[in-house]
Amino acid sequence: RVLGKAFVDINRNIEPNKTYVFKGGRGALKSSFLSLKISEILKNNPMMHACIVRKVAGTLKDSVYAQMTWAIKELNLEEEFEFKKNPLEIVLKKTGQTIYFRGADDPIKLKSIKPPFGYIGILWKEEKDQLAGPEEERSINQSILRGNGTAFYDFSSFNPPKTKDAWVNRELLVPDPNRIVHHSTFLEAPPEWLGQKFIDDALHLQEVNPAAYEHEYLGVANGEGG
To answer: In the prediction, which pLDDT does 1 show?
Structure first.
């Protein structure tokens, strides 16, 4: 009911200890899927906590925090969670499992997360392309995905930058058997979820500027379209 068709298969095949990269253009439902999946994984693993990271802490409340709130309500679980604003956290009341929200611009706060029990087993790096590069991503992973757990979920999502030379685009050219890359577009989303204005704007851009359409709505870097 709540999954876009592009995510039906990947939803069945998410498994721990792999790296999942979700890329695509506007309206591709990447964040919607990840917020729903994180809610499910948390409920099914009572010793596990989650952390969601964006480059700038000031963007968390109106983006990923709001997205997780939406997902929990969409799953009719809102009565089971406490939504805190200061600090920014979402807590499963029955177990005390916590979804932490952190900005990569404050590495001390990243490293200082210490759950009262269990470990942080879920990491979601939203807008990964805004990170400085692979070194910063590795630092985030090492700060968050540690502890005595045996199952870890490493998620990231982004709209591919226009240039093929951007670090996130180059990174995907390097073979990695442990990495799963998923690409989705608004064309696979139910039109009623996006609204007619979104569709009209996309089709207009396709007509007047096909290259911009491919980048913004299909998530294609320069030179990769056609």
So the answer is: 86
